[in-house]
Amino acid sequence: MHAPARIAVSRSRGLTIHWQDGHISHYALGYLRDRCPCAACATPPPSAFPIFTPALIAAVEPVGAYALRIRWSEGHSAGIYSFDYLRRICPCGACARPLTPPSPSGKPGEGA
User: Domain containing 38 — which CATH number?
Assistant: First the structure.
């Protein structure tokens, strides 16, 4: 499980998480809002048009010791962003690199 050492919230810019392993993740507002993990947001709308208007963070609340709930200025607050999910969606260059599928031998980097 990934755990934060420190979380900085900017209502107009997003979140910065300093992880216990030393990694730092910066999440812009639009990036976070577009990746809301709630059931309503995870199901794409039938339209090709974006459904979200730019929103600011109204509040961030801890959910136990494993997640954050972000309350958005447009009223949405159903998404619970677990720390594991936030680490998995980290947009930095090191984390966002494409993954190479494992090879049949099981050795990483030898995938097709």
Answer: 3.30.2020.30
> In terms of residue numbers, what domain contains 72?
4-88
Q: What phi and psi, each to the nearest 5 degrees, are found at residue 108? A: -65, 150
- pLDDT tier for residue 42 given thresholds of 50, 70 and 90: confident
Plot region of 102 (φ>0 → left; ψ -120 to 50 → alpha; else → beta): beta
pLDDT at 55: 86
Q: In what order do the strands lie in the sheet with 57-63?
A: 57-63, 67-72, 80-82
Which residues 6+ apart lie within 8 Å of 2 measured at CB?
19, 20, 21, 83, 84, 86, 87
pTM over 0.70: yes
**Can you give the length of the chain in residues?**
112
